[in-house]
Protein 1
Amino acid sequence: MVLQDKYAPNTNSAFEHYQAEHRLSIADTSAYWGEKAVTELDWFQGFDSVQQGGFLHGDVAWFVNGKLNTCYNCLDRWIEGRGDQTAILWEGDEPTDTKAITYRECLRKVCQISNALKAQGVKKGDCVTIYMPMMPEVSMVMLACARIGAYHSVIFAGFSADAIADRIEASGSKWVVTADEGLRGGKKLPLKAICDQAMAKDACRGVVEKCFVFARTSKTVNMETGRDVEFDSLVAAQRPYCPCEPMDSEDTLFILYTSGSTGKPKGVLHTVGGYSLYAKVTMKNSFDLKEDGSDVYACVADAGWITGHTYIVYGPLLNGTTTFMFESTPMYPDHGRYWDMVERHKINIFYTAPTAIRSLMRFGDDAPNKYDLSSLRILGTVGEPINPEAWRWYYEVIGRSNCAVADTYWQTETGGHVIANLPGAVPMKPGSCTLPCYGIDTVVLDPATGKELEGNCVEGVLAIKQPWPGMTRTCLGDHERYLTVYMKPYPGYYFPGDGCRRDEDGYIWITGRVDDVLNVSGHRIGTAEVESALVAHPAVSQAAVIGFPHEIKGEGIACYCTLTVGVEESDSLSKELKTAVRTAIGPFATPDLIIPTASLPMTRSGKIMRRVLRKIAAGESDQLGDVSTLADPTVVQVLIDKVEALQ
Ligand code: WTA
């Protein structure tokens, strides 16, 4: 091992312990997870077998016939001993707007929400759509669903009405929970009005029965009689205790829609037993949590993404820790907001994305240097490979070269971290997510042959060889798609869709998606979704959407659009097309470049040569490679000139 650089821990016994424990955990995953399930979770009824099924048939099940409740494990089990400890420490859009909610208070309110949902007809097995701002109630509604056995489908509050309608239609969700408005960076977001638009669409007609509306700003909003319910007063009128529904380990805890290679988002499904165990264990390990729950832990993601589900809500509460929730943006009221919060709340563990680090780094070191950041112990990063410059700034300027940086690789489908360095145990390398988590058997495959690449210094695609409890079990209503996307590309393995390199020390370096999924500011966006939004516009006859390197966002979105005959290109048309994408998906998917063109580089067999488009958008037109198979090679120079003019 040549890992003796300055990021190595002082002793290597911790590293040896990790290596030995990891070897054991994958030598017999059932023994490993079976023991963890018993020690880490409270069960109403024990399970008959630890694991059954496999990747080949997509019939994986964990803790078979066990009965438990995730909300019980998040709240009730901590009441004795930690009832008065803060469960949710919330900071609103204005730095002065803070709330500390204890485990006992949280349980009472979750029970009231549970009873309110039940009183309105929500039943075990129902799907509840949640479209809410980052107010404490978003976590509480998720927990209430878990308590009564309904499963939630949280939709990030940046999604458009069209996107909400698609998801409501796909899940058949009869129930929607929202708020009057959201508040972010001093701006108001009309969440109820957006829900109204979604519910009025054909796709949702006859689907939604009730829409429960929390007051965040107390603005008067449209309330449709018979459908819309003012939720705060209904909740307040409920009894603050509600029994937990005993759930089967393999019952659904939630679904979460995520982008894939086709235009239709997938409803990734997670289960009660396996997900809860995996969320708890990875949370504890990756952030080296103190057993007594005394850490103040802050993940500044949004609850609407998987990071928020696992590492704002479930992971921290399953561990009895204090979880910080943040409603605003890192730039409001100024770019020192994160560091101001670290000082004021004495945050010990801070978890964010490379894109946020890069955007704050631009302002220099003055802001972080103004604040006392000595409470910090661990810094986490997630969402995309972190570039070494951003890593160093995070480590040196934020962490004062005194904190471990945990680079956590995972995805919506994995439920929790699958590759990450254990702080203080696994030596760090800036830009590498390092080594697999316990119970995760990673391999690098040759993408062409599907054969495992042995040894170090190899490059290929990442795959996982054995089931783990946190893995998604299906795509809601479309098991075939689940098999096609994850299980069939490399039979016998789970395929996450990422390329990777294993270096001379066996460390994994993620090289990015190998499918048509973009990673824009850590948000997954399918190129097909953007393309279908563009071609829905009458001015566009064909669209090819590709990603290109972007300094802050990681990847930017470039849209090459062939215009309908007779349509002239103009700035106003480009603006209209950007709006079309915002309307179909949401503002976070706004294209960076719209490149109208008379034609696209096609092979003689009629396939768009995306490789060429990618190189042009990246400004690497000197490295186009062989373009001799193009039907019309002259189109290439035209596009190069257009992109240069735009950038
Ligand atoms: C990428 C977010 C490198 C990867 C939790 C993955 C990363 C996709 C990392 C999942 C990381 C996430 N290093 N790449 N630490 N974390 N990714 O589902 O391409 O929104 O497949 O989950 O983000 O995105 P998702």
Note: The first strand starts at residue 49 and ends at 52.
Protein 2
Amino acid sequence: MPRFRAILDTMPAYRPGKAVVSPDGRSYKLSSNESPYDPLPSVVEAVARAATEVHRYPDPAATALTEALAERYGVPPEHIALGAGSVTVAQQLFETVSEPGAEVVYAWRSFEAYPLLADLAGATSVRVPLAGETHDLAAMAEAITPATRMVFVCNPNNPTGTVVRSGELKAFLDRVPEDVLVVLDEAYREYVRDADVTDGLTVYRDRPNVAVLRTFSKAYGLAGLRVGYLIANEPVAAAVRKTMVPFAVNHLAQAAAVASLAAEDELLERVETVVGERTRVRDALIAQGWTVPVTEANFVWLRLGERTLEFAEACAAEGVAVRPFAGEGARVSIGTPEANDTFLAAAAAFRDA
Ligand code: PMP
């Protein structure tokens, strides 16, 4: 038997959202914050064209995609580092900054992968509890020690959907020592409508220790192809590029991402619809008597405590898969109007039960 690293025995498992089917055959997957829409025909065509070339390795530098992103955001291509989904870019960030004993600060609860990646990297997680479902940036700044190498600010936060506001973020960034990398995880940026939430891309240039993490998995609907990226000043982006496993972003993914940027107007219209549904779902939940934090992402958060798993089961019986965090609450993605209505009916029935 080979000897395995001891950390593997104690690491939390990543629990991906699963689809469920109701006894009468209905299935609505609201557990992974995906786009509820089928891929655009133009994107499917681009993938099909690229499929004829898969006997060759992909462009390791993803030149076309990097250039398309640079143009889209008005940044130099040197500021971009791509990865197989933003979770892989986050792993690359650990590879970039972390050594055994290094501390990584993040809010908790936040994105489930942070503790996992920290464990894998041999880093020590420093979890700062949310205050009222929102990042407590003052406490996070306090939690930084000389051993801290990186801080994640998930904005909007998964799973609560809450945001940190511009003034708070600036005050926080001003306090973080320059040798600590601050990662603004903006996986849900396209869904933000609150004008007082800083777009990381407007601040990173003046801050050598800030990196912005984005993804094609949510608003751009490419979760199944795995493309994410980081935008930061050149030293950070170059260091992260060095940590990429060669050819990590595959040929189909590169083609789909380029096609998605070309069809961005259509995709952002879909985002607008999801944002409208988000308001409708939250208002309806509040009318049912639930407390729902204001969400700027494509999901809502219900703090259910001990009733969380029971709630998830009640939703599953109606074919609605939600994402339960046992003892804490459930995160429910915004789906199609039909999926949302089914979820709302299940939530109402649960309250009345
Ligand atoms: N960051 C956050 C906050 C997320 O919620 C997710 C996906 N659940 C990711 C990053 C990773 O997404 P992907 O790897 O698909 O880009």
Note: The first strand starts at residue 28 and ends at 29.
